[in-house]
Amino acid sequence: MIAGEYMQSSQEVPVPQKQSTRKRYGRAVLYLGLSILLVVFILSLSMLIVSSYSGVETSISGFSPFALLFAVIGILLIIAGIVAIILPEGLTNDGVWIMKLGPLAGNT
Known about the structure:
The chain is mostly helical. The protein has helices at about 5-10, 20-55, 65-85, 95-100.
């Protein structure tokens, strides 16, 4: 038996699978959410540092509604990114079936 024949018959070369587009988009959304939270944190921290060095008793509050909005958006993007990375194909058929047959199914 020739060594080449033995290699072809007993072992197959694994084909690398292409990463799903939903997983790539999920990773991009996760990084976008993390970057938004980092920017909000840095801007809030810099505002506190400036107000502490300037001696202002109350901090500037005109930025806080926007900071809260962007922080919530960042957290939601992080959650969506993690879900897209973990479940790139969506829910399994068993999970959908269990959700359809929950305790409130058909009791409308």
